[in-house]
Design brief:
The chain is mostly helical. About 60% of the residues lie in helices and about 0% in strands. It has helices at about 10-15, 20-25, 35-45, 45-50. The longest helix is centred in the C-terminal third of the chain and has 11 residues, at about 35-45. The model has no long low-confidence stretch (mean pLDDT about 90).
């Protein structure tokens, strides 16, 4: 997020509500495959980063 200059509110368009973004970033919720794919496609970040997969 820092590298791309993104704030929590910038992720709402990709992830959902403010509270859902907050719960994912704080670790209370796991990121879904759909959200990882959306962030990969729209922000160019490898899905493996979100899914903790070795590359």
């Amino acid at each position: 997020m820092t590298e791309l200059g993104l704030k929590n509110r910038d992720l709402e368009q990709y992830i959902g509500s403010k509270s859902y973004v907050s719960s994912i970033l704080s670790g209370r919720r796991e990121i879904t495959l759909r959200i990882a794919a959306d962030l990969h496609q729209k922000l160019g970040i490898p899905s493996a980063v979100f899914l903790k997969i070795s590359m």
